Amino acid sequence: MKKIVTFLAAILLFITGGVGSASAQGFTDVNPKDQFYEHINYLAGHGFINGKTPDSFAPGEAVTRAQAAAMIVRVLKLPTENKVSDFSDVGSGNFAAAEIQAATEAGIIKGYSADKFEPNKKVSRGEMAIFLARAFKLTDEEQMTFTDVPLGSQSYSSIPKIIAAGITNGISATKFEPDKPVTRAQFAGFLARATNEQLRLPVKSCGYDAASRVNPDQQTLNCLATKAARKADVPPEIVKAIITEESGWKHYLSNGEPLISTDNGIGLMQLTNRTEFDTERLKYDIAYNIEAGVKVLADNFKRSDLPSVGTNNRHVLEHWYFAVMAYNGTKPMNSPFYQATGDRNLKAYQEKVYRNISNGFVTPNITTIDMTIADFKYDGSTTDNIQFNKKSFTMTGSNTMSAELLKEDSVVKYSGKGLRSRPSSGGDLVLAVTTEDRITIIGGPVYDTDSKSPNQYIWYPVKTTNIGKVKTGFIASPYIK
């Protein structure tokens, strides 16, 4: 009978992943009321972590660099066979020697020097963020409001990533305490959340409460649109120009109900009912509404029945011309030319969208797309789709690259006045720069600190070297070259 019970318990553990199980791992110092009880059981149940002794986990002890390396490598199942440490302070007798080498080779945890790892040094909250962001290749970011994580600090770009992944929050709304040591229980909890989505913390994207049914401020909407576009590798400039044209950045009416157009377009992106999308979520979840609109646009870009422009580069604004047209429909009203006169149709949907992008900073060269009236055939007396007589177009002008799809570590030139102390034109000028200066992006997009600012562009945290000293600040995307 005892064997049967043990077998059934093992099956239950396998099915549930160990989440919420009883103290099956035998750690007498880990209690069901502890914050990370189920997280520790989850990892121990899968053999990813061990106790300090067979019945003790020592949850309150600070986690060391060696222990962190061992846990991460086991979770990721990185190969450790025949691994020999390159560090002089990690001998072959160290319990984590192979794991330390594996974590180092994977670029997850670096040594303090070429031959020093300091395996017994305590791991701080900032270092934990760096390790987990690297280990799980996190890219999505949430905005930070922590006053103790200065721009340019070692963990500056990693902390927003683990917050976005639901791994942890700050100690308070304004404090992260990046230098505070992490306990074994806390590290197990953070690692379990990174591994198991069921254990993650809820995350409000861009800080927006989807249940509020009110239009968020302009910069929150800017954040939601930018994040959705970047995730789909679609130029945010185009997505935001479509929002301007479709709804004027308004999703909800004053009564809390979504904006519905006469042709049943829903909310911010004005999507009509499509079987692939959840209509209720289109109405009452702004983030979902934007994501759905971005998906339609991205799908249009891949359509074989639409003409391509240039090399069909996703990061070139002009190359989205026909995908933007199709967002509204390839109908006669959106022909680039009036058939009767041959004049350019400036009232076509895509033409209006591109004018929305032309905000005084960026002006896409759509007029240099080498097309003529003969390339399009339609009957103006019907609503039949335009026939495209040509399926590939070149450009005589230069490409306009998206400045809002840049990644961390990108090196750019800047035509603005210089680096600002905060992401706002009202921020102090930290350093004047020229277009010859090399500027490195050190994190994901941030948004104007004035939540009511009408600006739809983004800011990047950056660094550059001036007279031998590293300077940090923020630059605005429209001035990036």
Description of the structure:
There is one protein chain. This protein is an alpha+beta fold. The protein has four domains: 198 residues, no CATH class; 75 residues, no CATH class; 86 residues, no CATH class; 69 residues, no CATH class. The strands form four sheets. A four-stranded antiparallel sheet has the order 5-8-9-10, with no helix packed on it. A two-stranded parallel ribbon has the order 1-4. Strands 2-3 form a two-stranded antiparallel ribbon. α2 packs across α7, α3 crosses α4 and α8 runs parallel beside α11. The chain is elongated. The chain starts with a helix and ends in a 5-residue tail after the last strand. 40% of the residues are buried. The N terminus is likely disordered.
Which helices and strands, and how do they pair?
Elements: H1 2-16, H2 37-45, H3 65-76, H4 97-105, H5 125-135, H6 159-164, H7 184-195, H8 218-231, H9 236-247, H10 279-284, H11 286-302, E1 308-309, H12 321-328, H13 349-357, E2 376-377, E3 387-388, E4 392-393, E5 411-412, E6 418-420, E7 429-432, E8 439-441, E9 459-466, E10 469-476
Parallel strand pairs: 1-4
Antiparallel strand pairs: 2-3, 5-8, 6-7, 8-9, 9-10
Helix pairs in contact: 2-7, 3-4, 3-7, 8-9, 8-11, 9-13, 11-12, 12-13
SS-based structural class? alpha+beta
Number of domains: 4
Q: How helical, in percent, are the residues?
A: 25-40%
Extended strand count: 10
Elements, N to C (H/E): HHHHHHHHHHHEHHEEEEEEEEE
Q: Report the mean per-residue pLDDT as an integer.
A: 92
Distance between the termini: 73 Å
SS strand fraction: 5-15%
The major β-sheet equals: 4 strands, antiparallel
**General shape:** elongated
Low-pLDDT residue intervals, each spanning 5 or more residues: 1-24
Global Rg? 27 Å
Contiguous helical run count = 13
- The strand line-up of the biggest sheet is 5-8-9-10
